[in-house]
């Protein structure tokens, strides 16, 4: 174990010159990892670009921002005391409530003293001679670490639309992922909003209530299900807390990190009435997963999926009064193949007189002008434009740091044809670097907190294994990585996911390789695989006392 020794400067506290582990990001991943590393008596430093903990929940402060997994399930399981003492207020908490939780965790476990806020990691280079990473920040810090962990989140590198003239607009502009910390009042304003993913779907109803006029520019409609959000009742909180151990086990063994009763029937083998009753119950339940998991084949068979698609289309046509707007809101791609949304009054909002929908498939955006947005049909004038245009998902936050592994090869080059990882945890050529919920792991197809805890535990155990066995480096063997990439593609190919132009596929970023990035095999199966790999002495990894060229020694 290296002790923090020489110091470099970053603000009032000194950044240690050398640590066991450098962690990038103080979201849920970075916070829990820091806690685990401290328990192992390892020295660690966490760099965080924001001025507080929370990651996603620090940045995404747009009006209406909420999580779409239930609060009691979207929470850490590593501390029973934390589980019991924390009081969630709502079924689907708002961003401020989740940020409050993150802050509570940071304070309760005294995490802040090893986190350097307002500090962005710009580069990390692996030194093969010393088997160590040299990590550099935008504040001039340079830290040497035995291990580098990218806890940078899957949806953190935001993107603007690729249209000319963004800088010309004279009014106020906002991006949902960089919302101001102070309140924004749209009262009396004409607002244009571009993008109808989760961020758009959640913010549109709230902005519509404030603004004089709201015009939504939609390229691809979302499938959105009603959240049926409400305050939690004391009895349900007490029941959950009493049954937490069994619930956590069920989460870890489930497909999406959210326990659901397994479907037993095909959507095509039941009568229309039976299916409608089941879909109606899922719609009423206020859940992101109940509709997709109602039948065994909705995610894998187009004809089966069509039944769910028609059901949601029917709901949209029922709710939205203007027939053309309703048609424009009905997605053409299979249900669930782009990330579905949970909403409060999303479709209802289009019945308001002050809300208008522009279908960009008919009239694409040509440019942003001084006054507003020009489509092929004409110019719309606004006082403010909101960009709800999403992220360079899953890889953006990794490849936009200048990470250089063995031979000075950059991660960007190594992944130029799409991300290549072993288990979504590490990548060949980048020894002693780990990713929390990286591409090739269930990540965005799961309750993120469940997947984060599993990865953090696995990484902490791997480091502990190396230290206990006098080993220095861990790196995937190229063949194991190739086999895992093939497996991820194979499993993704069994599903309907590749049928949509989604950010799962990298399709929202021009020029990004089309690869289905998350692992669709389910968090339970995936966890088993990761555990087996560890139990077999980190099978598929090269472990070495002094560099990856050595043979992996037998485990105890
Ligand atoms: P998303 O889901 O990526 O949504 C971004 C939206 O912005 C989506 O509707 C995009 O249309 C649209 N978009 C992006 N670029 C353009 C351009 N150039 N022109 C017009 N429209 C554009 O991001 P969110 O922030 O809403 O949600 C991210 C995740 O957070 C969400 O999935 C949950 O996991 C939580 P497109 O679909 O690309 O045609």
Tags for this entry?
556 residues; globular; 16 helices; binds ligand NA7; alpha/beta; disordered C terminus; disordered N terminus
Task: Summarize it.
This protein has 556 residues and is an alpha/beta fold. It is built from 16 helices and 22 strands.
Task: Give the helices and strands, then pairings.
Layout: E1 7-10, E2 13-16, E3 18-24, H1 28-39, E4 44-47, H2 56-59, H3 80-85, H4 95-108, E5 115-116, E6 121-127, E7 132-137, E8 142-150, E9 172-175, E10 190-194, H5 198-210, E11 213-218, E12 224-226, H6 234-242, H7 244-253, H8 272-285, H9 302-319, H10 323-329, E13 341-343, H11 346-349, E14 355-359, E15 365-368, E16 372-375, E17 378-381, E18 384-387, H12 396-399, E19 402-404, H13 411-414, E20 433-435, H14 448-468, E21 473-476, H15 478-494, H16 523-535, E22 541-544
Parallel strand pairs: 3-4, 3-8, 4-5, 6-19, 8-20, 9-18, 10-11, 10-18, 11-14, 12-13
Antiparallel strand pairs: 1-2, 6-7, 7-8, 15-16, 16-17, 21-22
Cofactor: FAD
Family: Belongs to the FAD-binding monooxygenase family.
GO molecular function, one term: NADP binding
Shape: globular
Ligand types = ligand NA7
* Total DSSP E strands: 22
Distance N terminus to C terminus?
Answer: 21 Å
The oligomeric state is: single chain
Structural class: alpha/beta
Number of helices: 16
Mean pLDDT: 95
Describe the biggest sheet?
8 strands, mixed
Helical content, roughly?
25-40%
Radius of gyration: 24 Å
Low-pLDDT ranges: 1-11, 548-556
Query: Percent of residues in beta strands?
Result: 15-25%
InterPro entries: FAD-binding_Monooxygenases, FAD/NAD-bd_sf, Flavin_mOase-like
Protein name: Cyclohexanone monooxygenase
Pfam families: FMO-like
Family: Belongs to the FAD-binding monooxygenase family.
